[in-house]
Amino acid sequence: MIEGNLVRLRALHAEDLDHHVRWRNDPEVVRWATGGDPRFGPVTRVAVERGFDTMLGLDPADSRVFTVEDLVGGRPIGMADYRDLDPFAGRATVGITIGERDRWGRGHGTEALRLLVGHLFDTCRLHWVELDTWSGNERAVRAFTKAGFREEGRRREAVLVAGEWYDNVLFGMLREEWRESSGGPSGRTEKDAAPIA
Description:
Layout: E1 2-3, E2 7-11, H1 17-24, H2 27-34, H3 45-56, E3 64-70, E4 76-86, E5 91-98, H4 108-123, E6 128-134, H5 138-146, E7 150-161, E8 164-174, H6 175-182, E9 188-189
Parallel strand pairs: 5-6
Antiparallel strand pairs: 1-2, 1-9, 2-3, 3-4, 4-5, 6-8, 7-8
């Protein structure tokens, strides 16, 4: 478990399925998380169950999905993940989705991202972490920048949202940039957040 001031990241549990079904069938969550990618939602419960079984069985040496819980009441409010972890190249790709709209714009997503990135840099000894969004998602761009990420490039007009083309914006952060922006680890990493590899 990795805990901050607003949220904690914990292991994904089977009972989180209902939240994932709801988030992936919320048009606003789908729009902002993926630019409306129909592969994310809307989806049937059966389809989410198949994917969920896969997420529960992920090898943490390569990828993992966490549940983001609000510290007030312990309510699941979203998910955070890393994937394509390459210990030889020292890099991974991360993602964050806050599925509860009443937690948007309140710092929960930024903190969850910082907790995840801190875990990867400090526990997994990575050198570089990346993530992306579409240019119309200004909230995500602000959150990523606030968390210490820098824009590294764009794939121009690579994302189609409601009939309009947007750029795919690529962000990255180096370990040294993390150290400079945070002064060290963010949050309290407890003993069950042991090395992944």
